[in-house]
Amino acid sequence: MSPNNERRTKDETVSFGGFVRPLEMGDLVQLKPILEHWVKSRDTGQPLPEEVLEDLQLMEDSVNRLNDYRYFTAVGVKGEVVGVIGMRPPDSRMLALDFLQTDKPVELVNAYVDPKQRGGKGVGRALVGMLEQAAVVQGYTEVVLNSGPRYRDTGWGFYDKLPGYQRVGVAIGYFGKDGDAPVWKKSLVS
Ligand SMILES: CC(C)(COP(=O)(O)OP(=O)(O)OC[C@H]1O[C@@H](n2cnc3c(N)ncnc32)[C@H](O)[C@@H]1OP(=O)(O)O)[C@@H](O)C(=O)NCCC(=O)NCCS
């Protein structure tokens, strides 16, 4: 058992050989290159450093409890950071969509896995599992998410495969012109 596995707590969930736990400030330095890999212009493929910094700031503020976001980090067998996922109360544009069915939805945001670790090793699934577990504990009743055209090839198939998630519509123009984003939803109550 690795040192990291030894310090697992009840807040952590295991799969893919590693584990998932709440984001810690020290994770940000390893998350930055993962975000830089994925956060790119859908038109030009160019990096979007300002968006990466905004995301990292949201993560930092969440650790300091300065916002409503909560993030979780996937940690690999060698203790390395291999992915992140976040949740927050849905923004007003998501709430306005009329797709939600319960009083206390939570929005899944910022799912990113190290490109070398993604695509079938179970990191993303473990991150979502932890998010759902935490959401239930916090009294949330459904998970909702959208995913923009930037992630058509890398993200949409993942959400289509996730147990319990269904496409319920499209957030038209959520990401600007030609930025329609399918919306997925999963109920957390039976
Ligand atoms: C989307 C993402 C977070 C999923 O994490 P992951 O570690 O790759 O997912 P998992 O390994 O847990 O995959 C679970 C299942 O989904 C499948 N899957 C993952 N990505 C897929 C995709 N783009 N298309 C089709 N299937 C996919 C896996 O093969 C696996 O299938 P299996 O259960 O039959 O083996 C990750 O691929 C990623 O970072 N993608 C790039 C950024 C991105 O698109 N983020 C989403 C922003 S909304």
Concise structural overview:
Residues 18-189 form the N-acetyltransferase domain. The chain is α+β, with helices and mostly antiparallel strands.
* Radius of gyration (Å): 16 Å
The CATH topology turns out to be Aminopeptidase
The residue ranges in which pLDDT falls below 50 over 5 or more consecutive positions are 1-6
Order of the strands making up the biggest sheet: 1-2-3-4-5-6-8-7
C-alpha geometry: globular
Write down how many β-strands occur, each being a DSSP E stretch of 2 or more residues. 8
Q: What structural class should be given to the helix and strand makeup?
A: alpha+beta
Largest sheet: 8 strands, mixed
Chain-averaged pLDDT? 92
Order of helices and strands: HEEHHEEHEHEHEE
Bound molecules: coenzyme A
CATH top level label: Alpha Beta
Percent range for β-strand residues: 25-35%
Count of DSSP helices?
6
Q: Which architecture does the CATH hierarchy give at level 2?
A: 3-Layer(aba) Sandwich
Domains, number: 1
Task: Describe it.
The radius of gyration is 16 Å and the shape is globular. By secondary structure, it is α+β, with helices and mostly antiparallel strands. Helix 2 (about 30-40) runs antiparallel to helix 3 (about 50-65). The protein has a single domain (about 5-145), classed as 3-Layer(aba) Sandwich (Aminopeptidase). It has six helices and eight strands; from the N terminus they run αββααββαβαβαββ. An eight-stranded mixed beta sheet has the order 1-2-3-4-5-6-8-7, with helices on both faces. The structure holds coenzyme A.
